[in-house]
TrEMBL record:
Gene3D superfamilies: 3.10.620.30
Name the record gives this protein: Transglutaminase-like domain-containing protein
Highest taxon listed in the record's lineage: Bacteria
Annotated InterPro entries: Papain-like_cys_pep_sf (IPR038765), Transglutaminase-like (IPR002931)
UniProt domain Transglutaminase-like: residue ranges: 82-188
Native organism: Sphingobacterium corticis
A Pfam family reported for this protein in Swiss-Prot or TrEMBL: Transglut_core
Length: 298
């Protein structure tokens, strides 16, 4: 009997050890219980190189969601149609909607909503709640989708995202403008759109300008930040670029088994990041160096 209990005890301890090792592998900081890692992100801006050859195994698709029940509900509850009606071009509509979204609440980097749903977030904002950059991007994306735009959230990460313990990421959007036949970068938290020679840029084009000290302009209708301050702030985040593969939200199970639900564009010569701020393992993305894969034309 003593031997049997000893075997049970050893088995139980072994299971605990394996579980602890697995948890540390998934989240070295154990979900934030431990605090270690770099306190500050690397502010160095590097010149990045990418390829253009498309990857045949990766195809991005963006359907028209304007008639979905979620979009109809959003347009009925908020003045999206009236905002769009005052604009002449698709670009003007995007600019106006972004400014409206940014004005709904003030930024709070710690407050996480119960649901990543634009209608819910906007209603909570009317009650005085504040939210993160993630929620600005979520609301902007769903509002623009409700108006028929192909829109995606764009997660940005610094070069040292696996080493820092906070402030290593930022969430924005990119929108496909039919008039221009290109994707453009928007940052709803700051109400910023960037342009070069009057043409809106995507995130990679913005990084190229910053790294190579090429002059560009910003549109900031709500006057939240100067061009100099925004360039200095956003530059370090323009290293890893991540979008959804439209396969649903990333769940805990996806992270455990490594289901691929995202696509990350990363520079030639860069490493694929292992962790997000040592909080969670980054194993749910496909990786590409290809601009043509990341920026499909319609």
């Amino acid at each position: 009997m003593k031997i049997r209990w000893r075997v049970v005890g050893i088995s139980f301890l072994s299971l605990l050890c394996v579980t602890f090792i697995f948890l540390c592998w998934m989240s070295p900081r154990l979900g934030g219980l431990l605090e270690f890692g770099k306190d500050h992100i690397d502010l160095t801006i590097q010149k990045l190189q990418f390829t253009t050859q498309k990857q045949a195994n990766i195809k991005l698709y963006y359907g028209d969601l304007s008639k979905s029940p979620t979009s109809v509900k959003l347009r009925s509850a908020f003045p999206l149609d009236s905002i769009a009606a005052q604009c002449q071009t698709d670009f003007e509509k995007v600019k106006a909607v972004q400014s409206w979204v940014q004005s709904r609440w003030k930024h709070d980097g710690q407050n996480v909503p119960e649901y990543q749903d634009a209608y819910y977030i906007l209603k909570e904002a009317e009650k005085g709640r504040r939210f993160r950059c993630v929620e600005y991007a979520t609301v902007a994306q769903q509002c623009l989708q409700a108006l028929g735009f192909s829109t995606r959230q764009l997660g940005l990460m610094t070069r040292d995202i696996s080493e820092v313990k906070w402030n290593g990421g930022h969430v924005t959007n990119e929108v496909y403008i039919e008039d221009l036949k290109k994707w453009i970068f928007i940052d709803p938290q700051y109400d910023v759109i960037t342009l070069r020679n009057g043409v809106p840029m995507n995130a990679v084009e913005l990084q190229h300008c910053i790294a190579n000290r090429i002059d560009f302009e910003i549109l900031n209708p709500n006057k939240l930040i100067t061009k100099t301050d925004y360039e200095k702030w956003i530059g370090p985040y323009l290293y890893y670029f991540t979008i959804s593969l439209q396969r649903g939200q990333v769940s805990i199970w996806d992270r455990i088994v490594g289901n691929k639900r995202q696509l990350t564009l990363y520079p030639v010569g860069a490493e694929q990041p292992a962790y997000f701020q040592k909080m969670m393992r980054l194993n749910t993305a496909l990786y590409t160096h290809s601009l043509d894969t990341f920026y499909p034309q319609f």
